[in-house]
Amino acid sequence: MNGCLSPDIFFGIGLHMAESIALSHHGHITADNMEDTGALFTVILPILHGAEAYE
Fold first, then answer.
1. 33, 20 in Cβ contact below 8 A?
2. Tens of pLDDT along 14-52?
3. Contact 19, 44 (CB under 8 A)
4. Over 50: is that where the pLDDT of 2 sits?
5. CA separation (Å) from 24 to 11, 12, 21?
6. Residue by residue, what is the 3-state secondary structure of the chain?
7. What's the alpha-carbon Rg for the chain, to the nearest Å?
8. Where along the chain do its domains lie?
9. How confident is the model at residue 47, as a pLDDT?
């Protein structure tokens, strides 16, 4: 399935999955409305070094 039942009915879990992944890595997602082009989603993930990366 491609996330679309018909041209007018959509279901999707992509953003929810992306948020779950970001949160599980101690990150977050921001969303901004880009007036003429749609939405801009930014995923922020921390950089972990050494033993912290494996906790």
1. no
2. 888 888 999 998 899 998 998 888 888 899 998 876 666
3. no
4. no
5. 23, 20, 5
6. CCCEEECCEECCCHHHHHHHHHHHCCCEEEEEEECCCEEEEEEECCCCCHHHHHC
7. 16
8. 4-54
9. 85
Asked whether the beta carbons of 41 and 27 are under 8 A apart, the reply is no
pTM of the model: 0.59
Longest dimension (CA), the chain: 48
Q: Which residue has the tokens 């779950």?
A: 20
Name the residue with higher pLDDT: 25 or 4: 25
For 15, list phi and psi in degrees, rounded to 5.
-65, -40
> What's the one-letter identity of residue 23?
L
Contacts 24+ apart (CB under 8 A), 10-19: 15/41, 18/43
